[in-house]
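Bit of a strange request maybe. I'm writing a small parser for C-alpha cell strings and I need a real example to test against, not something I typed by hand. Could someone generate the C-alpha cells for this chain?
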Amino acid sequence: MKEVGDVDVMVPIDDEANRRALQRAKVQLDAMRIPLAGGVEPGSDAEYPTLMFNTRFGRLDVLYRPDGSAPYPKVKQRALMRRVGGQPVRVAGKDDMVSMKLAAGRPDDLRDVASMTRSEHGETRRIVVRMKLAGEVDQLWARELALARAVLFDPRSTVTIVAGQLQIKAVRHDLTEAQLTMWARALAERLHGSGVVADRLPAVRIVIP
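Reply from user aminoacidic:
Good idea to test on real output. This should exercise your parser:
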C-alpha cells in the first residue's frame, strides 16, 4: 500500500468499542505519536482534543471533537458511504466538511472549501465582523490574537478596537455569504473560548464592493 499523506479520523469520546478498534488499527499501522506536538488527549480540558501520529502509510490525526463540527452522532448520520481500499468507509458529508474547514480557518482549509463549492461562488465580498470585548481583557493582546486568525483568512484583513468593540474587516472572492458567516461565527467561538470576547454570536455585515 502506498503512502496516502494525511488522513483525519473523527471518533466518539467514551466509546470503549471504538477505542479498542482504534488501538488495533494503530498497532497495524505502526503508529507512533508525533514527538513534542502529538496533540491533546480527550480526557483533558482542551476544547478540541486531537491526537497526531506518524504511520508507515503517512500522517494520521485522530479528532475527538473537531473545531466547527456537529456532535459525532449527527456527523455520522449525515456521512456518505465510500469504499477505500475495498473497505466501506464513512466520509463526512460536504456541509460538515465545509463547516469544519471554515472553523479551522487555515489557508489550505479555505482553499479546499473554495474548491468544494466552486459552483456557488459569486462576486467579491467584504465582511465586517463586530464583537464585544470581554470584561478586563488586555486590548493589545486581544487585537493580536484576533489578527493572527484573521490574516489566515485574508492577509490584508484589519482588526481594530473602538469603544469596547473588536472589529475585523476582510475580503474574499471565493466564498459564499453563508460560508463567510460560518467563518465569523467559528472565529467568535474561538475568541470567546480564549476569553477575548463576551459572547459567541458576532454582528456580521457582508457587502459587495
